Amino acid sequence: MAINSAASLVTRMRVKRELSMTSFAELVGVPASTITRIEAGVVDPTYSMLQKIAGGAGFTLHGNLADTGSDAPYAAALDRIANATPSETGRLVKKLAQTATLSPVTKRPGARILALETTLGEFIRNLSNRGANPVISSLEAVARDPNAQRSFVPVVYVDRPEDLGDLPGMSPAAKASVVLLPITENVRRFTTLVDGFTMVAPEWGMLDALASPGRQADVARELLPAFAARISDAVTAANRDHLGKLGTDPEIS
Length: 253
Hints:
Blueprint: H1 3-16, H2 21-28, H3 32-39, H4 47-56, E1 59-60, E2 66-67, H5 72-82, H6 86-94, H7 96-100, E3 112-115, H8 120-129, E4 135-136, H9 138-143, E5 155-158, E6 177-182, H10 185-189, E7 191-194, E8 197-200, H11 202-210, H12 215-248
Helix pairs in contact: 2-3, 5-6, 6-12
């Protein structure tokens, strides 16, 4: 690909996301200097680099730039957080609000909005009994509490949602709703068991809350600073404990 073409493409991606070079670089997981040099035509990126940038920004490279609706940017963001230093963790978690805009839950492939006619716990148990292997996300996953509904619109991943066609769709008469999404390989990478329920990682749950419709996203944005501080403190404490164990291990010290 020609330098000018690559420069124009990366600039278009960044402008469509309405981000500065620094913010765009953080979003896609490359150094800010790389974006600066590509846009200036100083560097001719490889196609694999362009794919990484496009995927991190939620675009495809086939034909015109198009939103993929993929959760790949979510996985990339969580990988960056997992590999960050303790001092970087809080800042990267705060950036989740930016990443969430790339993949709204209701625009993901296979998304369905259903009426929630029972408690969330009963709904999850019903899905489990039907072999759908539900995975809880959103604010319930952030709180690590599957027994209390905190979301205006809970987000749940399932195997083969096409097998659940008899579940009631959302209607004006419904008192509550839930977003049902097909499980992806990225989701599977970031799941864990909590009190017998399968949940996504708290950071993924926060992403889905931020990417949810209406008031849900507003609440998540209000919670994000405290959530970032909590994650940062937990990473710092874990790092300190690890160093302490190294210092007292007779085989190492």
